[in-house]
């Protein structure tokens, strides 16, 4: 869900920047509120950013790496959690049977509390690291797509390529302006040759 929020934020930012640029850079002013002419639309296209990202081979590869790191983090956390639970059971058993002095019981309790705090700290750290890696992964993917479009702007011959996704500022678009599959095929081909 966090990943989707970041992607939507990037898409919204790009779209708003594009609209701002379109509004203030035009040399011709039109008082017409009618439909966009085909000559105007020829300089624009859009890609469905969600489809491009989720079907991009780079996303799949990086997602696999991230899931592997997440599994390792969960295993580490589970291992430390099991050690804590074992220590807590040992403490309860010894105290309930009267096998330790009050001073020793207090020391054991203090050690368990510290171990619990370390466990919570480790959980938060691992969770934060995974979230940060996911954010970086998403930025790398968006950067790759943007750089690809910039490097190949002569091939696409558009002045503007918008990113459309659910909840974006683009509420409607003509399907004839959709170049999603063309871009997806091209970036996957490029990524596979670089890989």
Explain how this protein is built.
The protein contains seven helices and two strands, in the order H-H-E-H-H-H-H-E-H. Strands 1-2 form a two-stranded parallel sheet. The chain starts with a helix and ends with a helix. It is rod-shaped, with a radius of gyration of 27 Å. With about 200 residues, it is mainly alpha-helical. The chain has one domain. The longest helix is centred in the middle third of the chain and has 50 residues, at about 100-150.
Number of structural units classed as domains: 1
Class of secondary structure makeup:
mainly alpha
What proportion strand? 5-15%
Please give the order of strands in the largest beta sheet. Answer: 1-2
- Give, in order, the helices and strands: HHEHHHHEH
Helix content: over 70%
Name a few traits of the molecule.
two-stranded parallel sheet, rod-shaped, mainly alpha, single chain, 7 helices, 195 residues
Ordered list of secondary-structure elements with their pairings:
Layout: H1 2-25, H2 38-41, E1 44-48, H3 49-55, H4 57-97, H5 102-151, H6 153-156, E2 160-164, H7 180-194
Parallel strand pairs: 1-2
Helix pairs in contact: 1-5, 3-7, 4-5
In short:
This protein has 195 residues and is mainly alpha-helical. The chain has 7 helices and 2 strands.
